[in-house]
Amino acid sequence: MLALHAVTLLGLLVTASGLQCPKCLPWQGNCRDEVETCRLGQNFCVVQDLYVNPVMTSAMCVGGMALHSCGLLSRDVAVRLSGNSFCCTTDLCTNKSYASMPIPPGRPVCQSCVGSATACGPNSLTSPCPNSQDLCLQLSRHVLPGEEGDAVYKACGEQGPPEELLAMAVGPDLAYVHVQRCHGVGCNNGSFVKVPRGKPNGKLCYSCQETGAGECNNEQLRPMTCMGAMDQCLEVQTTDWYHPVTLLRGYASTDLCRSWELLGRLLLPADTLVHCCSGSLCNHAASCRDPLPLLLLPLVFLLLLVGAWSCAGGGNPGIRVHVQGPEDPGSWDMHTHKHRTKLSRIHTDT
Ligand SMILES: *[C@@H]1O[C@H](CO)[C@@H](O)[C@H](O)[C@H]1NC(C)=O
Ligand SMILES: *[C@@H]1O[C@H](CO)[C@@H](O)[C@H](O)[C@H]1NC(C)=O
């Protein structure tokens, strides 16, 4: 407790005098020893290694930050990123006291950064990847209005398709996670472009966003014209099995529907169930989940046989994706974090 006070006090003192933090670490490629002078309120020099294991690893964030304690930013916690965080409060202290875990030679090297599209430009710093099979990736997130921040990441990650677009539209609003993967030293050197919504694709889906005022009640559902690659109707519900609440309806890309829960968590609220179906207007509550009267069962079988079941959209079964909750929220600060294997990267700040 005393130590915590001391750190806080030190943080305040240093803030007043303009803490100097390295913007990169000596072992990062392209590091030219630039230093930034912290703005008012930025009280820590920080090295963070953010990940969504195993899809994205080693997204490095280095510099000065305003923090209450040595943890992730609320923006990162909100999208359930995990991470290791090293913080210290004296000038250039991350350069002196944070040492990289020796990574065996021959590991892939990728650009690594976290921030805005302008900050993560084509000349971002590079870092070696933890796994020899890793590819380089770049990822951008665009969220629905009212949710926390857009952000871009360059990092390492496991093998996967060269491009994935997990996109959904709710009313006039678009949200997506766009991932591009490549193979080769620092090949994730692209800039980030906004993903366009596209042209009408002939499908219709219901759309609503529940704010507590009953927007997703059946009577009030509005049909929307689906655009671009988003040709699946979507319904997102709470995981409460007996009384699931519909949080939103809209339309989505197939990548979102078959996606990993892992990437979906960067886009959708924690602990939700995602239902996708491919027939026009199939994301109507009654079409998917109303309990069926027993008498109708033979008819149901008949419908199933001819592939006309409204939820199945021509024989294509609906897909459920479970978006998982956080792995271990708030436990990655250097004193308490559980990722012991990474501890060798951290030397204490004395
Ligand atoms: C950081 O450390 C490296 C080597 O240990 C040194 O060459 C570099 O000048 C230092 N950078 C700063 C900003 O002190
Ligand atoms: C990006 O990386 C590729 C592959 O490593 C390289 O051929 C290309 O020249 C790079 N582009 C820029 C702008 O650095």
TrEMBL record:
Main localisation: secreted
Domain named UPAR/Ly6: residues: 18-94, 110-189, 204-285
One matching Pfam family: UPAR_LY6
Keywords: Secreted, Signal
Annotated localization: Secreted
InterPro entries in the cross-refs: CNF-like_PLA2_Inhibitor, LY6_UPA_recep-like, Snake_toxin-like_sf
SUPFAM superfamilies referenced in this protein's UniProt entry, alphabetically: Snake toxin-like (SSF57302)
Gene3D superfamilies: CD59
Biological processes annotated in GO: cell differentiation
Signal sequence region: 1-18
GO cellular component, one term: extracellular region
Keyword Secreted among record annotations: yes
Superkingdom of origin: Eukaryota
PANTHER family hit by this protein: LY6/PLAUR DOMAIN-CONTAINING PROTEIN 8, PHOSPHOLIPASE A2 INHIBITOR AND LY6_PLAUR DOMAIN-CONTAINING PROTEIN
Protein name in the entry: LOW QUALITY PROTEIN: urokinase plasminogen activator surface receptor-like
Species the sequence originates in: Alligator sinensis
